[in-house]
Amino acid sequence: AASPLAEPPCSQAAPPPSTAAAPPLTGMTVLAVDDEAMVLTGLQMILESWGCTVAAAGDMREVFAVLDALPDPPSVILTDLRLPGKGSGFDVIDRVRRLYGHEIPAVVLSGETAQSALLEGQRRGCSFLHKPLHPGDLRQVLERLREGEEKGQGG
After folding, report:
1. Looking at per-residue confidence, does 132 or 104 come out higher?
2. In angstroms, rounded to a whole number, what is the distance separating the alpha carbons of residues 98 and 83?
3. Residue 76's closest CA among 49, 96, 101?
4. Residue 14 has pLDDT above 70, yes or no
5. pTM (2 decimals)?
6. Cis peptide before 73 (omega within 30 of 0)
7. Class of residue 61 by CB neighbours under 10 A (exposed 0-12, middle 13-18, buried 19+)
8. Chain segment 40-75, per-residue pLDDT in tens
């Protein structure tokens, strides 16, 4: 018989909900679009540390190049609102959704809070995160989207 002092073997398998083991983002593919290389690299490092696969692009042209390399559609589009040229983050969202023929969840990163941009995003069902970005906020949004995605798959 086991000694009464022995710890049950599963005692360490249940970390408190506040740790990084909260709903895992492993296996989530994120299309990250930002024209600032530093921001994009930072996003990529954070997302990869959470177990995400990251397809990183600096503009609309790169978006299609990185999507070409993916076996499946991205789980989430994470895009800066302001991109070089005429395109915006909303154009990226529209074109990627059109490409795959379904509403891929999208998160828009923005340094501005113009009402028109917020309305434009709501119309598309986007989440908004304001720059400078806090990793904790990003993680919360992605976990919410992931939970919604799993519910949507019917089990």
Report:
1. 104
2. 19
3. 96
4. no
5. 0.81
6. no
7. exposed
8. 999 999 999 999 999 999 999 999 999 999 999 999
Give every CB contact of residue 112 below 8 A, 6+ residues apart in sequence.
81, 82
Could you report the per-residue pLDDT of 77-126, keeping only the tens digit for each? 999 999 988 889 999 999 999 999 999 999 999 887 788 888 999 999 99
Contacts of 120 (CB under 8 A, 6+ apart): 90
Please check whether residue 30 is in contact with residue 53, taking contact to mean a CB–CB distance below 8 angstroms: yes
- 71 touches 104 (CB < 8 A): no
DSSP secondary structure string for all residues of 99-122: HHTS---EEEEES---HHHHHHHH
19 burial level (CB within 10 Å; 0-12, 13-18, 19+): exposed
What the block records as the tokens of 107 is: 């998160």
Give 35's contacts (C-beta < 8 A, 6+ positions apart). 58, 59, 80, 82, 83, 84
Contact 85, 72 (CB under 8 A): no
The first and second tokens of residue 67, run together, are: 């999507």
